[in-house]
Amino acid sequence: MPMIYHETYIEAPIERVFDLARSIEVHIETVPNTNECAIAGTTSGLMELGDWVTWEATHLGVRQKLTSKITEMERPYRFSDAMVKGAFHSFHHTHEFTKSGSGTLMKDWFVYRAPFGVIGKLADKLFLERHMGKFLSTRAAELKRIAENR
């Protein structure tokens, strides 16, 4: 299964970064180009262990829905979410936070499997991995901007 790894140094306390990363409102703010909105489950506030959310967003020109659930949480160091229903065959996204100097090192591991077998593997190589990598890095950059300006 493909894995995308991304890390970002954020000049902000670990607790702030952790909370911003699991905020529904901040998630929406960090991905304006996908027109995301939370339409079911936890639709506002901070996600907690066991919470789920259904997102509606436009990716690769297609409006789609995806439901994910928080499957692991160790405040303020780590949380994971996994797809329950959506366009991927499966995905698991781990967010890790480490104190570093006067700030926080935020690491993301996004492990996924594209749908549709061989066709999905081809789509992954042609555009999906690049799209998801850009999505994660853009979100991290926006989260950094928000955390450092609050």
How would you characterize this protein structure?
This protein has 150 residues and is an alpha+beta fold. The protein has one domain (3-148): Alpha-D-Glucose-1,6-Bisphosphate, Chain A, domain 4, CATH 3.30.530.20. 31% of the residues lie in helices and 43% in strands. It is built from three helices and seven strands; from the N terminus they run βααββββββα. The chain has helices at residues 14-21, 24-30, 117-148, and strands at 3-10, 37-41, 52-59, 62-74, 78-85, 90-100, 103-113. A seven-stranded antiparallel sheet has the order 1-7-6-5-4-3-2, with helices on one face. The protein is globular and about 45 Å long. The model has no long low-confidence stretch (mean pLDDT 92).
Number of helices: 3
CATH class: Alpha Beta
Cα-atom radius of gyration: 15 Å
CATH architecture: 2-Layer Sandwich
Under CATH, the topology can be stated as: Alpha-D-Glucose-1,6-Bisphosphate, Chain A, domain 4
The percentage of residues in β strands lies in 35-45%
**What best-fitting shape do the alpha-carbon axes yield?**
globular
Structural category is alpha+beta
H/E element string? EHHEEEEEEH
Query: Roughly what percent helix?
Result: 25-40%
Mean pLDDT: 92
How many domains make up the 3D coordinates?
A: 1
Multimerization state: single chain
Quote the distance from N terminus to C terminus. 37 Å
Question: If strands are numbered along the chain, what order do they take across the biggest sheet?
Answer: 1-7-6-5-4-3-2
Unreliable parts: none
CATH superfamily: START domain
How many strands appear in the DSSP assignment?
A: 7
Major sheet description = 7 strands, antiparallel
Protein name: Ligand-binding SRPBCC domain-containing protein
Pfam family, one: Polyketide_cyc2
InterPro entries: Polyketide_cyclase/dehydratase, START-like_dom_sf
Organism: Planococcus citreus
